[in-house]
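Methods: example folding runs. The two proteins below were folded one after another, and each record is reproduced exactly as written to the output file, sequence line first and structure-token line second.
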Amino acid sequence: MEAIDSLNTIFLLVNLMMYFITFDQLYLQEQFQEGMVFLLFIIHYHALEKIIRKSCSWMLM
């Protein structure tokens, strides 16, 4: 179970890195920047929330 959790966390971190890379690319293309960045932020918000919850629970242990 812990292996699955750590795999999940790695996947979420990779996801976030992809988000920031995409964010940079969209920032350069100013046409449809705002809408897309907002959409990506909403999609990746859950991933970020999971990582924050996990690290908080690790700190409390």
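Second run, written to the same file directly after the first:
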Amino acid sequence: MLPPITFLPCSNPNLNGRDRKPDNGAGEVLSAQAEIIDETHRFYQDLFTEDHNIADNSREQAVLEDVSLIYRRLGPSQSGLLETAPDMEEIERTVDIMSSKKSPGLDRVTAGVVRELWLKIKNDCRDMILDFRADGRLTVKTKKGLVENAVSVVHINGAVTKEIRLGRGVRQGCPIVPMLFTLSTQPLMQLLKNALVSRLIQGLKAGNGRHVLEALFADDTGLLLQAEEENWRRATEVIHKFEQMSGARLNIPKSIVVPVGFTEPPDWLRTAGCKLAVEGQIWTYLGFLIGVNLTEEQILQWMLDKITKTLNQWTNKIL
């Protein structure tokens, strides 16, 4: 593996007007350090590949030998300066003096980007360098830091929102969500409609011989079924088939079953795994109140309670 190398502070008047002076006693090794850096440039520039041992091929071994010759020319006190593991300040100085287009790591993230995002990824850069010193293996770590720590803000009429962490998926209010939802759930809807047409399952009777099977709006899906155990079993089989095809999963704990026309739900429905609405409970679906045998008094009381709660919150705020 490469001899342990630390990058020492050097004089560079071109760094945004900041003149970096060499530490006392370190100036005599700067020329040797410059040679080492020059040699290792060739070592780094073609290593944009997967993790591998740096001594695996002859070309890289030749670079190691050249660096070793430079290293052996130093005296004991000089080489001692190079044997110390670099600290965060030294690593930052090294990134500062690199060309903005140069990539200091395997992930092709340039030094210019690294400098701009330094506070977010400095720990990843440090870990990458220390791993290299420890066992001669180069790992891609800065991309992980860029993704995990990425944040954004939204400008609204000149005001800036709080930071929003970026990641996979979409956020509520995103304008593309309805289209994404339609694309992802259309196969399920087609399976259910095919099952309805073939009379494999029965939807809710709506009069005039019609059956309504589903209610779809934005990212909400409601399934309307005749309350029969066999009908329920077949409907869940269709959903399970979609899960196997798509890799998606029905969020059972968040799903609610609302029996209509029952004073007590049947036993087979209690084992479905979903939340089960019982008499006296009120749920909301797309802004509508739903429940078992709801009365006008229950609905009115629910609305009054919600209004009272909102008004109480207002009184606790300075308007």
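Comment on the second run: The CA atoms of residues 3 and 80 lie 11 Å apart.
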